[in-house]
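Feature request, filed as a ticket because there's no other form

It would be nice if the structure record came with a short human-readable summary line next to the tokens. Right now we just get the raw output. Example of a typical job, pasted below so the devs can see what we mean:
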Amino acid sequence: MAYNSTFPKQNIPDSEKTKEWCKNMVDAVTRYHGNSVRATRERRKDYDNYMLFNGLFDQRQFEYITNTYGLATPARLVNYPIIQPKVDLMVGEFVQQPLKYNVHTVNTEAISRKLDKRTEMVTDYVMAPIIKEIEKEIGASLGMNNDVLQQIIPDDLEDFLAKNYRENVEEMVYNGLNYLSYKYSLKDIFKRGLYDLCITGKEFYKVELVNGDPRVRRVDPRALIYDLNSDSEYLDDAWWVAEERYMTVNEIIDEYRNYLTPDDVYKLEDIRQSTPNQLSERYSSPNSWYYKESDNDTSARIKVIMCEWKSIRQIKVKVSPNKYDPDAPFIKILPPDYKPKKSDLIETRYISDIWEATKIGPDIMIKCRRRPNQIRYERDISNTSLSYFGCVRNNIDGSTISVVDSLKNIQLLYNIVMFHIELAMARSGGKSVVYDTAQAPQGMDFSTIMYHVKNSGIIPINTQLEGNQMANFNQFSQVDFTLSNSVQQLLNLKIMLEDTADKITGINKERQGVMKGYETVGASERSVFQSSLITQPMFYIHSKLIERVLNHSANLMKICWNEKDSMSYVLGDIGVQMFNIDDTIQYSDYGVFVNTMTSESQKKRAIEALGQAALSSGQIGFLEMIKIVNAESAQSAETVLEKAIQSIKAQQQQQQQQQAELEQARLQQEQSKMQQEMDIVNANNETKIQVAQINSGSNERVQKTKSDSEEDQLVSKNIQELDMAALMDEAKRR
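Raw output as currently delivered:
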């Protein structure tokens, strides 16, 4: 923080920070700015840049080219825009991308709470199958729904790892930012700011409480004066800042009616009646407190200066230990009437305070006070932020270089080249005949001669008539007024200037959608990528500024929404989004993180290309591809693509497993059938064998039986014969 001797002292008691002290501060700011050659030069340059971007420039500086010495000229020096299409393209790329941000609590307690939650989720996921096995063993439930737990936890863990997980309070703030974005068209405001950045190299906003909501207002870079000694590119790091607004008396009374005294209103009425008649250019003179747009302007605009600055205050703080981080104790600012306890650790510290004052016209001072609703963070209570936010790109010694600054000379030279081309075309008239009017045919005027030329192509001349000066006629000659080779040279110069503008800005033909006939798709994509590298720094600082603005807005919610229960906002044709608010919103510090626009766009396009390839190969379906295209961010698109591929893989694995099971079942069935057939064959064979055996045995038995029968018969015959012989012998003996 650099102090100037002309500024009033800041390290003084609050009792000495009076209305007069505030007036001295505002006067010092305007005096410092008015005496700054750099500030005057920058403001003049910003005016010229806006004029040139809109196609306007001072014609007088080109009189050395356009001067016709009082005669009419067949051509005019006008603007042929080179700058505007390139700026429009960059702004269009920003508009095309969604305003994507994420919210995280950044205070120590909240971070520890999230880590504890993550540990709990991991533990539950790991313990779920173990508990399930225990329940099987004991035959009783332990009160945990393990099936649901196993289904939900992986996705939540994935969100944790992807930094997408939000606590309830983070979800509230995230919805709160969506509320501000939709209700107050934040993207349109940031779009206008990007135009300012491209044109002037500066981009400014003011974040203030209006009707109970944090409101973001774009500030004209020409209206802002600030501490030029700051080396930072960001305005909120400056010591002081002031905004010049030119308002009518009625506008002043409407906006500041709650701060104006009756005497102030009388002064304003006197100013209305006594406004000087001479004209004054807006923002032209720091010492001028009014301006008039024209002679017919009956009510001059009065300058209103809204000033903010960082002052110093001595305070008492209570230091308490932090169990989560011993090196970062809790610090609480104590009120002046606080009576400390014996156990309290009290320290004296110096902090920055934001003071404000508004000066209307030459001497009306209002709102001279310490600014209410100041945001302080647990990690750094000594510092607070201005309500003005902005960036000064390429801040070198207080000067900036914008896109318009880089192309300004090329644009003017381009206009000159086009002027000469137009002039050459105006002078072009084809081939003409030159002849001595003394040789005109007798009795023919000029119109009659032109009639014969046009209809017959002949000019009758009689050299024998009296009055003709020469018998040998040679008075006719021809002059060629067609376009000369110089026009082609001018056209070549025109193309060269266009190519130079492309190289300076990085907005080449490929990035504009113009592809060369001989160029491959891969080469064109590389050209677009290299082109984006040149513009990336500007998009980066623009994104970081948006991040700062949204951070301040998010933390203002702790103050302005602490008594609200619920809110809603309209999502276009989708419907109405409602969200709840509770008192936990005021107990945390919030960090808002914005994706860099260009890198986000490139990632999104790359993921969409991968999604298209995955769709062609059957790895994802049409529904998933639609989700990828409609995703709000590259990260969301990546998540959709990853889950879709995993889902398809899981389905394919399941199908493969089912097919394998079916194939195995088929093989088993075939094996079973073959076994059955083999069993039948074996059974048949066994039967045949048995039958053969039976048959073989039967034959043997039959043969044996037959043999036995024959033997028996022979024995019986022998016995019979013996018996007969015995009988005969007996008979003989008798």
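Something like this underneath would help us a lot:
The radius of gyration is 49 Å.
The longest helix spans residues 634-733.
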